[in-house]
Amino acid sequence: MIIKFLFAAIKAGVPLLFGTTGEILSEKVGNLNLGVEGMMFMGAFCGFAVGYYTDNVFLAILASAGAGMLGALLYAVLTVTLRANQNVTGLTLTIFGSGFASFFGELLIKNSVDGTPKLSSDFVAGLAEKSIPVLGKIPVVGKLFFSHNPIVYLAVFIAVICGVYIKYTKSGLNMRAVGENPATADAAGINVSLVKYIHIIISGGICGIGGAYLSIINGGGVWNNSCVNGQGWIAVALVIFAGWSPFKAILGSFVFGGFTVLQFYIPKSTVNLPNAFYVMLPFLVTIFVLVVNSMQKSKKHAQPASCGENYYREER
Amino acid sequence: MAIELKGITKTFGSVVANNKIDLCVKQGEILALLGENGSGKTTLMNMLSGIYYPDSGSIYVKGKEVKITSPEDANRLGIGMIHQHFKLVEVLSATDNIILGSKKEGKWLSKKRYEEIKEISEKFSLAIEPKKMVYNMSVGEKQTVEIVKVLYRNADILILDEPTAVLTPQEITKLFAILKKMRAQGCAVIIITHKLNEVLELSDRVTILRKGESVATVNTAETNAHELTELMVGRPVELSIQREESKGNENLLEIHHLTVENEEGLEALKDVSFELNQGEILGVAGVAGSGQKELCEAMAGLLSVKKGAILYHNENIVGKSPRDIIKMGISMSFIPEDRLGMGLAASMGMVENMMLKNYAGTSRGPFVNKKEAKKLAKRLVQELQIVTPDVETPVRRLSGGNVQKVLLGREIESNPNVLITAYAVRGLDINSSYVIYDALNQQKKKGVGILFIGEDLDVMLELCDRIMVLCHGKVTGIVKADQTTKEQLGLLMTDAMEKEEGQHE
């Protein structure tokens, strides 16, 4: 039972991990992107639609990343080049993304045979959970960590790559400097705008894949207009929980994944709480985390100093 | 010739910051760039470092005409600038700040980078700890990191924008030794400073800017402080401070055994006792970070007091909010160290800044009286010679000295009986400084008690009646200014420090 719960927690945490990793990249270069939810919606729809029409898993994932990148590009042009307010732009992106998914999702529903767009069984089989040979046979650990669908590994892989990149490479150092103090980075000869564009766009791509995971895997192969349902917002908060480290984001998203599936694993006979409580739980914990975090005073694990502010070289 | 500027012009909107400026500096030479606040020194240097791009004119580096459109271009040409406000990332180590953005080989951050930086710093006998985080550093250490950063990029043209403004006398001596060493190695150095004694001590030649134009270049050996000031201001200036006899003897404030904790919970002030008389300027000297900031904030009611009392006419004001203190009829004006952060609303104009506190006649019921505020702003512009395009221009666009004048002028207008000023002339040119000293002296004549937190001991000896020396949050002495010497003050500033270091060992 506990193994089953933990297994489900990891599964449910994956979209959060994509969103969190993506948002960390964006915040590390100084751009607080509140459009995670929107980019996930865009990725969710495009991934599903391409999967629906082509039956190709690879193309579907690629399309979801592309859609997320497109949303992020829009955000980058507005905030980096035109220096629009980051909060407003991000919120707008979220509204745009959910509208985008609903609008085209509705079209998809109308064009489907019986009003329920459903992915082919071949496609779903391509993303089924598979036990990895040898490793999957290890008791407990094998079931817990080595019997997932391929996207789960992709999520962890991306998070680890990002973590290593940020901490141990020169480009990572440069991007951190841009997020902390763009004027300093600029004076050191770093192309601030370019660094921001690259990371914001990649961040959008990662968020987009998270959206596809929600529409394709969590949705059981059937399209649902509100498949993202606030996960993007939890991801934004998880960035703080993870202290802007992709490594900690892995743990953090699985813990929060646990909260989202908790209701299915606590028998009504032992603790009888209304379902609404469980639905609320992740958000409640998010608030708790934000409060605890705001009481800590660590300079090292704090938000990048310039996060939320746009940079203009000749500003005095 | 390392650098030659010909006819450089730069405008910001309708303000001409630089007008057809010519300047040159040779290899193995230290050139001082002198000028009042807002005369365009920093703007000019920013064009060499690629922050701004000139509207017209040409720049020659090592004989070749160049276009510097970004800091990267400047790096490539061997130009390194140390800005007045350090360009360092607080949460990174010294080493990571130094190698930031460098185009040297390799993609990974290796452990070897720390040794590499250690080697470079030792080569120039600069003391830095490669792994130390910038937020744990003193101002002097930060500056050393900035210098190593420039050297790491093999710069042979070094620009320093007011490097000594925040350093202790010991750190300044060290810095000058470094600069002289670099000159001997053939580097070209341009240094912006307001302190004439530094110009005379360090530089080979001096170029003087006035109102955005280069008015003269003189050899340091053939000039003196008076001539330089005259060139800078455009008219002869009296270079002495009048010290009026302090009249009132009545105690205005009595501070008893004040102990204050800073944000990190460490005791920033320990058992501080002193009194401030009417019509007196009490100087506070000490190495930066000795508790000056906490003293100001505790007195203004911004920082809570752990132990001790602040008596105003025998009434304790500890624990009262700034508003209560004002209500008690104590008008205490506080001119904070961080002018734009704490003193003024940076993106508002002078007029709106005048209305921030409840200044005389600027409000009528719930409505503001903008006309009065505007009149006041205009009067201050005249009285204190504030240079601004308009009284509605956001104050952050003004140069440092003018911002300071706005702040001081506003505080004086509220007719305080206690005036607290922290580093009132930091970064100000000579002329502006004297305007401020005059203003303070006038307040003193009116019977205001002034707490003057300063860094230039020469000035404090001339201006203050008494000087209190702080060291590690303790008072190490209160002396009469006319009965002491700079050396004695220096001893008081470091005396306790040595003792404390002795205890640690």
Automatic annotation (TrEMBL), chain A:
The keyword Membrane applies. The chain crosses the membrane at residues 32-52, 58-78, 90-109, 151-168, 197-216, 222-242, 249-266, 272-292. InterPro entries: ABC_transp_permease (IPR001851). It comes from the Bacteria. It is a multi-pass membrane protein. One of its GO terms (molecular function) is transmembrane transporter activity. Its main location: membrane. Pfam families: BPD_transp_2. Keywords: Cell membrane, Membrane, Transmembrane, Transmembrane helix. It is found in: Cell membrane. One of its GO terms (cellular component) is plasma membrane. This is Nucleoside ABC transporter membrane protein. It comes from Anaeromicropila populeti.
From TrEMBL, chain B:
It comes from the Bacteria. Pfam families: ABC_tran (PF00005). PROSITE patterns: ABC_TRANSPORTER_2. Transmembrane segments: none annotated. It is a peripheral membrane protein. It is found in: Cell membrane. SUPFAM superfamilies: P-loop containing nucleoside triphosphate hydrolases. InterPro entries: AAA+_ATPase (IPR003593), ABC_carbohydrate_import_ATPase (IPR050107), ABC_transporter-like_ATP-bd (IPR003439), P-loop_NTPase (IPR027417). This is Simple sugar transport system ATP-binding protein. It comes from Anaeromicropila populeti. The lineage of its organism: Bacteria, Bacillati, Bacillota, Clostridia, Lachnospirales.
